[in-house]
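In this supplementary section we document a worked example of the pipeline. Step one takes a protein sequence of length 193 as its only input; no multiple sequence alignment statistics are reported here. Step two produces a three-dimensional model, which step three serialises into structure tokens for compact storage. The input and output of this example are shown verbatim.
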Amino acid sequence: MARENFEDDIIHIKTAEEKEARTSSNSECLGTNWTPTMDCYPIELLLDQVLRGNKIGHKFVSEAWIEMVRLFNAKFGCRHDKDGLRNRYKHLRGQYNDIKVLLDQSGFSWDETGEMVTAEDYVWDSYTKVHPDAQSYRNKSVPSYHKLCVLYGEEICNGRYSISICNADLDSEELDLRIGRFLVSAIRASQII
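The serialised model returned by step three reads:
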């Protein structure tokens, strides 16, 4: 019985993938006003799936999406679908990329205490003249950035602000992540859920 339901869920997900170009009419995600709690929870779900090996390249396996949708909807009492959570995944990837680009620029650094990108005013002023969209990060805290590095970062350390979980003890209660010269301990996502 449970096997049939699981296969039905997979068929439903595959059908949604085939219709990916259009927005699902069953999703309430389009009108969702994402609260900080709602924003953090998908990150925890995604991170848990990464640590469980359910991400291949830049994509999660279908079973991972099924579980994440189920857990998210159960926690918040809503009817989001895979497309809605994938849109949030893409939004978070954009946020990660924006911050990474800033940190790759001379004069910008990561403030672990404030959980934000910092630079002298003249650096911000000069950069935002050319890239006005970056202004939003000038005073914006991004508390989950170290987790976004695990989700979207490169597998091999190659710079000041990249991280690697290649040698991490995934059975440990805590994971130690290195972001630049900062060592960050992250509680396993499965412990939070």
